[in-house]
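Please check this today:
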Amino acid sequence: MKLWQKENTVTSEKIERFTVGKDREMDLHLAEFDVLGNIAHATMLATIGLLTSDDLKALTEELKSIYAQVQKGEFVIEDGVEDVHSQVELLLTRKLGDTGKKIHSGRSRNDQVLVDMKLYTRARLFDVATATEKLFNVLASKSEEHKNDLLPGYTHLQIAMPSSFGLWFGAYAEALIDDIIQINAAYRLANRNPLGSGAGYGSSFPLNRQLTTDLLAFEGMHHNVVYAQMSRGRTEQAALTAISSLAATVSRLAMDVCLYNSQNFSFIILPDDLTTGSSIMPHKKNPDVAELLRAKTNRMKALPMEITMVLSNLPSGYHRDMQLLKEILMPAFDEILDCLDIAAFMLENMKVKQDLLEDPKYDLLFSVERVNELVINGVPFRDAYRQAGAEIADGTYVAPRDLKHTHEGSIGNLQTAEISARMQQELAAFGYEKVQRALDKLIS
C-alpha cells in the first residue's frame, strides 16, 4: 500500500527497493509519534467539520489501540507497506473502512513526516539531556569527593601549576552545561509545529493549526508553510550539532582517562573489570572502554557535515534526498546515549591516586606559588618572577606546598553548588513536563 499510488500504476520492484531503502526500518522509531500526530490531526478535522463526532471517536479509539501495540513492541510495518504512515492508515482502514480513509484530509505525507520527525527529535533530545544530567551528577559528586586530592596541571603537556581532581571533574561538569544549552537550542528548533503545511503550500481547507500546535504541546508553529518544509534538515542538523558538541566533551574526557591511566602518568586506577588484557603481555590492563568511547564520540563529530552534504545543493521545497536524514539522525541518538551511560559508569568506578604532588618531581609545579609568596611579602611581581627563576637555576628553590587558593572556581573554592544550580536552571528551560502531560492527555 502506498499513499500516493494511483490505479493501474506499478513501480518497478528494483526502483521500489532502492527508493524505500532503510525507511521501513527507521520508521519503526516514528510509530508512536505518528499515532500522536494522527490523533491531533483528527481532533482538528472534527472541529472544522471534516469528521463527525462518531468518526473522531472511532478513529481516536483505534489510534489509541495502535499506540498500545507500539508501546508493547507489537507494531510492525508489513511487507509491501511503504512506511509507518501507510501502515497506520492501513490499520485504520481495515478496522474502520471509509472512516479510516478520511484522516488524510488536509494533510500531505510531507507534513506528516515532518511532524513525526519533530516529535521524535524533541523527545530524543530530552532523553539526551536527561542522560547528560546523569553524567553531570557523577562528575559533580566526584569533584566534591576529591576536592582535596591534588593533581598536576598541564600546559603544552608540560607540568604547569597545581590542579586537583576536584577541578578536573568539575571542569567537565561545567562543560556539560554548555552542551545542554546547545541541546536546548536544538530542542527549541524541533519544538515547532509543521502540521498543516501540507506539501509545503498549505491547504484550501480551513485548518486550525493553532489547535494541533496546542494538542501536541509545541512551543509554537512554523508560520510560513514553505519554511515549514524547509525546516526539514535544519532541525536534524541542529540536533546533530548539539550531539557533536556533547560528543567532543566526552571525547576529551575519554582522552584524559587514557592519558592519566597510563603508567607514565599513573594518576587514576581503572578496576580490573573495566579493563582488558593482552594476549602476550601478562602485565597489561588496557583502558579499552575509554579508547572506544574516544573513537565513538570522535566519529560523531562528523555527523553535522553528513547532513550538510545531503542538503548542500537543494532548492526550496521537499526532495526525496531528505529521506536519508533519518539514517544519519536516528542511530546518532542511540550512540550518544550509550556513550553517556558508559562514561558515567566508568567514572563511578574509577579510583584516583592521592598525594601525587608529594613526589619531588613535581616541585616546579609550585614555582608560581613561590612568586606569589614573594609578592605578598612586598617584592614587585617582575622582581619576584626573576628571583624565583634564579632560585630554580641555582638550586636554592624550595617548593611552597601550602596552597592558598580561595577565589571563585579555584582549587580551594570549586563552586560545585553554583555549577549544579546553573545546570538545573538550564534543564528546567526544556519544560518537558508540560509536553509529557499534553501527550499523555492525547492517548489517555
Observations:
- The radius of gyration is 29 Å.
- The chain has three domains: 13-105, 110-149+163-200+223-356+414-432, 360-394.
- The chain is about 60% helix and 5% strand.
- The CA atoms of residues 143 and 168 lie 7 Å apart.
